[in-house]
C-alpha cells in the first residue's frame, strides 16, 4: 500500500497578472515535494450558485416532475446552452441562498418556499478556484421578472421533465457541467435514493481571495465594478 500523501504545498510568492471585472489571474510559486518551486496559474472567481427549480408531476411517477431550464448564449463556445438558472456571487458578503433566490426570480420569474442544498462542486480545479453551490427549489410560484440585459435579454425559459433532462445529458444535449451535476443530484433526491442538505450547511468551498481583495480596495457592494 502506498504511503499517505504528506507534503504541504505552500505558495511562497503570488502575483496578480490580470484583474478583470468577473475574474482575475494570478501566478503562485508553489513548493513541490523535494523543495523545487513550480509556477501555477490560477483563475480567481467569486463563486456562483445555481438552482434546480422542480415542480412535481404524477405522484406515482417522480420522474414526471419538471424543472425550469434556461437556454442562454455562451460566447466561450459560441452556442446557446441549456442550463440551470444561475448567477455569480459578485455582491460583497451576499449569502448564497439570497443570491440563488434573486437569480431564480431574475432568470426564470420564479420564487420558492422550500430550499435545500443539492451539491457543491469545483468546476475546473486544475486552473480555477470557482466553486458552485446548487440548490433544489420546490413549492414554486410565479413572480415578476426585472428587465433583462445583455445575454439574458435573449434567454428563454423551458420546462423539461426531469427524466427527459437526464436523458438529454446522456445524449450530449445538455453539456453545462453545473447543470449536469444539479440534474443528476435532483434525480437522486426526487427518487428518494438520496437526501438534500439543509440550506444552513456551510459553503466551505466558496472562493474568497478575489472578493476579499476587491473589498480591501474599497470596491463594492458590486465587486465587478472596477
Automatic annotation (TrEMBL):
Keywords: Hydrolase
One of the record's GO molecular function terms: hydrolase activity
One Pfam short name: NUDIX
Xref: Gene3D superfamilies: Nucleoside Triphosphate Pyrophosphohydrolase
GO term, biological process aspect, one: nucleoside phosphate metabolic process
InterPro entries attached to this UniProt entry: NUDIX_hydrolase-like_dom_sf, NUDIX_hydrolase_dom
Protein name: NUDIX domain-containing protein
Biological source species: Corynebacterium poyangense
Amino acid at each position: 500500500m502506498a504511503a499517505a500523501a504528506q507534503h504541504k504545498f505552500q505558495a511562497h510568492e503570488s502575483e496578480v497578472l490580470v484583474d478583470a471585472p468577473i475574474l482575475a489571474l494570478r501566478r503562485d510559486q508553489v513548493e513541490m515535494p523535494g523543495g523545487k518551486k513550480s509556477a501555477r496559474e490560477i483563475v480567481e472567481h467569486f463563486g456562483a450558485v445555481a438552482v434546480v427549480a422542480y415542480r412535481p408531476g404524477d405522484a406515482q411517477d417522480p420522474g414526471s416532475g419538471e424543472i425550469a431550464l434556461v437556454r442562454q448564449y455562451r460566447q466561450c463556445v459560441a452556442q446557446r446552452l441549456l442550463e440551470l438558472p444561475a448567477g455569480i456571487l459578485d455582491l460583497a458578503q451576499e449569502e448564497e441562498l439570497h443570491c440563488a433566490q434573486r437569480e431564480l426570480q431574475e432568470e426564470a420569474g420564479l420564487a420558492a418556499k422550500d430550499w435545500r442544498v443539492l451539491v457543491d462542486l469545483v468546476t475546473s480545479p486544475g486552473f480555477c478556484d470557482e466553486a458552485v453551490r446548487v440548490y433544489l427549489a420546490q413549492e414554486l410560484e410565479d413572480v415578476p421578472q426585472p428587465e433583462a440585459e445583455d445575454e439574458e435579454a435573449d434567454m428563454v425559459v423551458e420546462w423539461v421533465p426531469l427524466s427527459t433532462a437526464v436523458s438529454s445529458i446522456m445524449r450530449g444535449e445538455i453539456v453545462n457541467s453545473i447543470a449536469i451535476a444539479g440534474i443528476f443530484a435532483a434525480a437522486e433526491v426526487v427518487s428518494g435514493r438520496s437526501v438534500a442538505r439543509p440550506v444552513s450547511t456551510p459553503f466551505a468551498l466558496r472562493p474568497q481571495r478575489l472578493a476579499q481583495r476587491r473589498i480591501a480596495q474599497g470596491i463594492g457592494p458590486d465587486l465587478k465594478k472596477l
